[in-house]
């Protein structure tokens, strides 16, 4: 048995009121000129003020950069990097969902490198990151992406997505304060919550899973499954928001170390071609991918069922794995996310181009417990369009 490589960010503060530690951490870095990268909506509603006001009161120079869009394209990454290169910042703070935090990580590291962002992309890039870059603090305002604890920055290309990935992209400090998520609307709460659940599920069945990632993933599933519906129904539910923040954080650590696989590989083209939010792309595909690969991981699917609040005690592994897929379908439906690709306006004619793009996500597909070839990927997309769970040689 080979040893597992386990990596955690250097420092995290997790829990209600965690933002109170921000000023202390900024002082520790000796920073003077701070760049905050955030979503323009968060600035408009005043949430970013909770980050910038304490810093300005301490005399720090703070500039807020809001040229952030959901599912940021490569051009947004290039623009953010150029902005940091042209400035005289000595600390970058990412505030928001995955898009803002991914751009913050990318800009902080590539600011001290030559070349374009495209040069460092996983699928097509030819350069390697060689310097740690500027210090970075990441503060999520949603419970879902896990970006605050991963070494990946995701960018949308013309029809799919690619990543820049290196341990230099890890946050120096992650501050996970569920109080910042209270104002997140129900649809975003649902999408990001299923995103976090997908991270945990895929990490648990990954070929790279370890006892460490297993523990993180299972606890993440327990927390998310008991709190997601409540958080969607009542955003001010303190316990539900706290559970979701903790669950998302643990799921992020789990998938950072074990990896995600088929769901994400097939979700990337949905975002690239149809600009569907990443969490919703994962959500609509989750039951279909897990149903398709079910036979390759029935024991683990039984474990997932138990973590989701089910009971496999009197079921065979085969029965429990079927029940697990049904529970995943139920959770997605309960939080109001469409159950088919057609529900997002995706025509059947697009399935072939989606299939072609998904087959290129070899980094992700390699972690699937069942090898997913082009025919398998096509079958899963067709199942997601029809709204029917299928399995190999059965669909």
TrEMBL record:
<dbReference type="InterPro" id="IPR056798">
    <property type="entry name" value="ADH_Fe_C"/>
</dbReference>
<dbReference type="Pfam" id="PF00465">
    <property type="entry name" value="Fe-ADH"/>
</dbReference>
<dbReference type="InterPro" id="IPR039697">
    <property type="entry name" value="Alcohol_dehydrogenase_Fe"/>
</dbReference>
<protein>
    <submittedName>
        <fullName>Iron-containing alcohol dehydrogenase</fullName>
        <ecNumber>1.1.1.-</ecNumber>
    </submittedName>
</protein>
<dbReference type="InterPro" id="IPR001670">
    <property type="entry name" value="ADH_Fe/GldA"/>
</dbReference>
<dbReference type="Pfam" id="PF25137">
    <property type="entry name" value="ADH_Fe_C"/>
</dbReference>
<feature type="domain" description="Alcohol dehydrogenase iron-type/glycerol dehydrogenase GldA">
    <location>
        <begin position="12"/>
        <end position="178"/>
    </location>
</feature>
<feature type="domain" description="Fe-containing alcohol dehydrogenase-like C-terminal">
    <location>
        <begin position="189"/>
        <end position="385"/>
    </location>
</feature>
<dbReference type="GO" id="GO:0016491">
    <property type="term" value="F:oxidoreductase activity"/>
</dbReference>
<dbReference type="InterPro" id="IPR018211">
    <property type="entry name" value="ADH_Fe_CS"/>
</dbReference>
<keyword id="KW-0560">Oxidoreductase</keyword>
<keyword id="KW-0520">NAD</keyword>
<comment type="similarity">
    <text>Belongs to the iron-containing alcohol dehydrogenase family.</text>
</comment>
